[in-house]
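Protocol step 4 of 5: obtain the predicted structure for the target chain.
Materials: sequence only (see below). No template structures provided, no constraints applied. The aim of this step is simply to have a reference model before the mutagenesis design in step 5. Sequence pasted as it appears in the construct record:
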Amino acid sequence: MIKMFRAFAKDESGATAIEYGLIAALIALVCVVAFTALGDTIADSFNEVATTLCESAGGTYSLTATGTNSCTFS
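Step 4 output (structure tokens):
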């Protein structure tokens, strides 16, 4: 019985899987933080491109009553 406990204590076969799981969790956490931090910057860049395209086509790019941006032509 004591030999079984010693063998179980020395067994490290599951340690690698746990390490890989911790690394994957850390990478996922870094991605979430990075996407959260860059989200507004990316959205602002897309809005700037949309505004430029709309105005160069002769339209007006503005916020609608439903809370979305829209390009309108008059």
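Step 4 remarks: The beta strands are 60-63, 69-72. The radius of gyration is 27 Å.
Proceed to step 5.
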